[in-house]
Amino acid sequence: MRAGALVVAGFVGCGLMAVAGCSSTPTPAPPARLSPPIGDITVDLSKSVDAPCGLVGPDQLGQLSITAPGRLNHTSTGLACTWVPDGVTSPSYQASVDMTSGGVEALYHRRSQFTVFEPTAIHGYPSVHLGNDVTAEQHGHCTVETGVADPTLLIVSVVIAPGTADYDDPCSDADRFAGYIIGYQGARSP
Q1: Backbone angles phi, psi at 89, to 5 degrees
Q2: Which pTM was predicted?
Q3: Measured between alpha carbons, how far is 47 from 179 in angstroms, rounded to an integer?
Q4: Closest residue by Cα to residue 139 from 102, 171, 115, 112
Q5: What percentage of the chain reaches a pLDDT higher than 90?
Q6: HEC sequence for 33-56
Q7: 152: domain CATH number?
């Protein structure tokens, strides 16, 4: 009989602890996610932060009429690589990797800082066409940032010469180049 009393006391004690736990201040829920999820398949671009000219291979560059190697340059956000086409009628591209600004979710939290913020997707990865000049796309310029892993952003910019085919739609070229990079890096993954 004494064992039964201990069991009852144990249940009462657990019940009191549960009630005490319910009266405490609840832990606040994390803020709701603003950006689309990246998904299960991520692309590791960590090695390309300091070597962005290796983001894309010669076969992909050849499809874009680029035979010269990329030029490494310093930007306000770090190292980038610029590829210039063989002819003046083809677009030039720049790409870099950002692993310090917080990724695509942080980009969505900063969306009010951009004049242009157009969500899109590249190969299923959440992407944004963005900038601070609403006329940039009309003048052959586009930048797209793609979340390929948390907190990694692939940043691609394109410049298209006036009078060429895609001058009025530069973001399609930026998206295509970002897609080449994602495909190339994905094929290189183990």
Answers
A1: -90, -5
A2: 0.81
A3: 18
A4: 171
A5: 58
A6: CCCCCCCCCCCCCHHHCCCHHHCC
A7: 3.40.1000
